[in-house]
Amino acid sequence: MATQREWVNWAIGRIEADFNRSADTHLIPLPVPVLPDIAIYLKDESSHPTGSLKHRLARSLFLYGLCNGWIRKGTPVIEASSGSTAVSEAYFARMLGLRFIAVVPRSTARAKIEAIAFYGGECHFVDGPSQVYEVAQSLADELDGHYIDQFTFAERATDWRANNNIAQSIFAQMAREPYPVPTWIVCGAGTGGTSATIGRFARYNRHDTQICVADPEGSVFHRHWADRSILRVDHASGCIEGIGRQRVEPSFLPDVVDRMEAVRDTASIGAAHEVSERLGRRCGGSTGTNVWACATIAAEMAARGEKGSIVSILCDDGARYTDTIFDEAWLADKDLDVAPDRARIAHFFETGNFAAL
């Protein structure tokens, strides 16, 4: 019978083998022909085995838990999530033969819930996003399990100096581009771990790259960045899954962020629709949030006569949102008219002008 240490060695080996047979994700140009001196790219994280940026995070969180002695043979793993992280964690839990329970809001997209179940995970539903933390910890205590807690450990579990984190991958892939060191990297914040990793990596390698976090208008993160005394908002953060929170998460590090862009939900969804058509495949709402911020920055750079590159993230596959942001009936029920904002972002791609129409 294997000892716990032998099982942990086996589990780490399984995760590393999975990583070794997985290719890196693509860096896709997003052309704006009328702005030849400004190049925009999207890091396509939807091509991970579990279809989103959160695959990297889930792998790091499992390795962190294993190496800290928190995850052992037979340990139930519990997570608080809006969906995508739980999908990826269910994948790794199944790989290791562990029970996995995701505590998710009832509003989570059906496709994400189905994906969690596909990988053998269970869903425990709560009525509001703010309830996920307490319920996840309570379940972990009840089952003698491990609450993996992405919101606390995202920036700690990821090796921000290297180890093929997303920042290292972006800079390596940009090496042969006309402007190899990005002027800006734009990302959203759910835990804050991605912006923390990219911001630290840029500083560690003495790059001049600045970090912009694109945040849903209802989220607390951009408010906290402007005023550190603001730690929570009482209202819902919006309908863009995966980014934006009601409380400032421990993994969000505002001091590594150079700029915040607050983006309306209609702008995020309108941009997601337009980018999906231009790429020939659907992308999620958080990608739209990112692209809206990229367009804002690109237009400002062009107005100043600056040259350079902007890199952002295609966070996940839009197929997960067929019954939400890509469903006309759903949009109508939420009273979301995305046509004006979609027209504005389309106008930017055609003219380079991002002024309101």
Report on the architecture of this protein.
The protein has 2 domains: 23-47 and 159-351, 3-Layer(aba) Sandwich (Rossmann fold), CATH 3.40.50.1100; 72-147, Rossmann fold. The chain is 43% helix and 14% strand. The chain has 13 helices and 10 strands. A 6-stranded mixed sheet has the order 1-2-10-7-8-9, sandwiched between helices. Strands 5-4-3-6 form a 4-stranded parallel sheet, with helices on both faces. Helix 2 (54-67) crosses helix 6, helix 3 packs parallel to helix 4 (110-118) and helix 10 (265-279) crosses helix 11. The longest helix is centred in the last third of the chain and has 19 residues, at 285-303. It starts with a helix and ends in a 6-residue tail after the last helix.
Brief sketch in words of this structure:
The protein is 43% helix and 14% strand. With 357 residues, the protein is of the alpha/beta class.
